[in-house]
## 1
Amino acid sequence: MCGIMGYVGERDAAEVLLDGLRRLEYRGYDSAGIAVACDGRIEVRKTAGKLSRLAELLRKEPVRGTVGIGHTRWATHGQPTDTNAHPHADESGRFVVIHNGIIENFLPLREELERRGHVFRSDTDTEVLAHLIEEEYRGELAEATRRAIQRARGAYALVAMCADEPGRVVAVRMISPLVIGFGEGEMLLASDIPALLPYTREVLVVEDGEMAVLTKEGAHLYRLDGTPVERARMYVTWNAEQAERGGFPHFMLKEIFEQPRALTETMMGRVGPDGRIALEDVHFPDGFPEELEKIWITACGTAYHAGLVGRVLFERLLRLPVEVDYAHELRYRDPVIGPHTLTVAISQSGETADTLAAARLCRARRSRVLAITNVVGSTLSREADDILYTRAGPEIAVASTKAYLAMLVAQVLLALYLGERRGGLDPKVRTELVHELQRLPARVQEILDAHEEIVGLARRLCEAEHMYFIGRGLDYAVAMEGSLKLKEISYLHSEAMPAGELKHGTLALVTHGTPVVVVLTQHDVYEKTVSGLQEVKARGGYVIAVAYADDEHIAKHADTVLRIPRTHDLLSPVLAIVPLQLLAYYVARERGHDIDQPRNLAKSVTVE
Ligand code: G6P
């Protein structure tokens, strides 16, 4: 996820671009840059770091012009450095591009272009687009861009400029968002509406597979085969603050709804057509996967709960012993760890002090450390031997949602990858998992489409004093995360435990009406969990089950059922957590709390 901005008009382009990028900074903030057409050339200013550094650079080295493009980056390929910051240009500097998203086949494209003599400056996937457009240019930027993108695969939004056509900006949308703003004698373009609002409220959303050509007189929209598109403009009534949240009342809800895209992006380019897994920043030495004796997962908070899922996945698929430890425990535990152990350190931010310390300890004991993190260039990613980036985009709400789902999928990819390298993974299971993995984004979307059903339940539960979450195996891991979500934002006391443990103490607290969430997706322990559920019912507890849509038995036992689409049991956590995230959200809303910034908590804990 990155922020894109474009301007064609009469004002000082650099000023407009910088202002727009400020409003898009929530989409990414590791580097930024602008390109402005002036005197027959395109001037680029870009730098690593937050926008304030770009503003400082522009004060020292101003650019004057009335047409330009700007970008605030959330890295996916290449570290957040000055060189990797957007815009990117071809060798001549006449063709300049910015881009949000991923070009899946950028490596073969880059190799091909290099063979033809192109020289690359950055490590990004974006730069191939500048070179491709340059190769395809025969006097018309729009045509060259159309031809260039026919060779690129992926999900992206691309904006291009050419020094020979200074009054024009060309943009293409393939999945990643793009909105056009219509001003008086000026036209704008952005990844999201907030950047446009100071200039206009008349917008048009570019759809997938469409190209927009902007001049200061207006915009022309085409399908990629060149057919013109006519679509009515929209009038935006949101205020700036609502707009930043994409019209959602809170970032948390917005991020819950971004989960299908977070999953798609995390898988993109990593699952081949033959089902083989490619992990671009994992470089295990020869023999390492085969000689692996143990996996040790370490993390905190939600990332630790993702690790609980990972434990079951790695154990089942790789038949290796797996430990999962809170990082703050592991670092003082004197663990028996060595070169045949793979440490998997999971952290959304890549900056959690405890997780960094645990990873350093494991590394000092000669364990290879693989980081699963959402932030390219974070301390964890820099210190780890291998990296598996989740591509959830910046997460703003303190309560983590989309990063958690992406961590789950990242671990499935890692398990399949290791399974391929080690051999011994049942080909039938592998095929089924790969097949089901690719259907997860659509299945999460199905749950989100039915989100209103949870509002009524939340109203019923918002007065509760305590709540319990139970499940077995993977369902227990989901119960832990569901309970944490509820606690974090609703301040309602809740506890999660394995379903079999309830009777060893906590059952004493279950009385008439006590809400108990039971997660029931694992067929091998289904009956056992149902017995736990009956213990709750017998004490008058109010049972909320999370179960598959085709589970015909559960309605007999539970008071309310939150249904999820059926999937492979090993993937069910990705779906089962979604109704619980929504439940936590709506309960907190009913209770009137500050959902995005809950009391006493921080998004990233960088001190011990
Ligand atoms: C904080 C946040 C949690 C998060 C945990 C770990 O406590 O409030 O939401 O899960 O840190 O963060 P990390 O960035 O390492 O995943």
Note: The chain has 20 helices and 24 strands.
## 2
Amino acid sequence: MSPARPRSNLSSPALPSFEEAAALVAACAARLARLRPGPRSSGLAGPYMERVPLHQALGRVLAEPLLADADQPPFARSTRDGFACRAAEASAHRPLAVIGSTRAGQTPSGPLPRGAVWEIMTGAPVPAGADAIIMLEHVKEFDAHVEETCAPSTRAIRLLPLRTIRKGEHIVARAAQARKGDKLLPAGSLIGAAQIALAGSCGCAALNVFLKPRVAILSTGDELVPIRSSPGPGQIRNSSSAMLAAMVSAVGGSPWVLPIARDTAKSLDAALARAAAADLLLITGGVSAGKFDLVEPALTRAGARFHFTGVRIQPGKPLVFAELPRRSTGPNRNQSRTKCFGLPGNPVSSAVTFLLFAAPVVAALAGQRDCGPRFALARLTEDVKTKTGLTRFLPAACTFSGAIPEVALVPWQGSGDMAAMARANCFLVVPEDSDRLRAGSTVRILLP
Ligand code: AMP
Ligand code: MG
């Protein structure tokens, strides 16, 4: 990392490749994740965490492991409507007396006598002595008084011939999923609907989660006006701040949108001084090689150290990754310097570089464990021709309805084309050494 370095020449082969830049950012993200305080076994929420009701925990990150408060399931449970039996007796196709019935929420009154079955509903506890459940659909039921059974009964069943049943079939044994005290989820787990269900099953009506990192979003450019304004000649609306705020929220950060900074040293210096209170700073625009691209000199004046000032990617080549002296008192205050990305101003470039590089850092600051960008494989439906030398991430539409995902490029007018990006649902990855991807080949896509 260099202390304060002049602009790099963006056509220089010395720019890192996508893989090199991604590895560098991943290493930073891993260090940030380790700076999080360790899990606490009990007690009230501390300065790095807060307690949220379970129904508001979606998208948050567990600050403590989730422990099983009891065996799961707490009793041997039937997974079918049918009859609890001894598998060996049922498989002999003998008539078996139905001597009781248990539904979910009840407990069976006693052990299962030999030569008998117990009617049982899904979710009900299995009576002692039974070792399998015969599905309702697999029996013939008849009225009979079966002499050999221990209890008098007027109902009997027989497993339909040719079928047999194995020990354990349709029963989940007590504690088969977890034993009391087992760690069900580690600290750092992202909370989705499944994790909410699991926490609910353990009696957690509230969870301790990490505080969200505060992510400053600073759009720069003399041409930008707020979304509510009518742009004058040569002006455009600042759409990227709103987009990035949504992207920050989606990966667990708390967006802090700053007023637009102008392309002047004074405006940029004042904005950077303010933004240094954040846990992470995202700047858009002003990082290319133009006369009014003044962000890098402003970062240098603010004491930045640069990891890189460009990456061999398209869109997003002028991406800057730097660190600023820390002024934050937020949940990530124990990181010594504030990470900062200078994202190229075109909205598609901002979106791609956010997904590839900034999102993993936001997720790490939010306390998540696995926070790299998400890639998948799909089959390309049309030939794609490009040039070598840059890894490309091109707006594409992928359909997931068939046997395997199929992807095609969305026509676009370059990295300012927000309509194309809005029609896309992923980005096609074209490796740096490829000038052509053939229809029918398996390709990588970057997921939003
Ligand atoms: P820059 O990186 O500052 O050279 O900007 C590149 C292009 O992106 C220019 O056409 C800008 O007008 C446009 N742009 C920059 N910032 C934004 C923004 N916040 N919202 C929408 N477009 C932007
Ligand atoms: Mg600009």
Note: The helical segments are 18-35, 87-91, 193-201, 239-250, 265-275, 295-301, 347-365, 418-423.
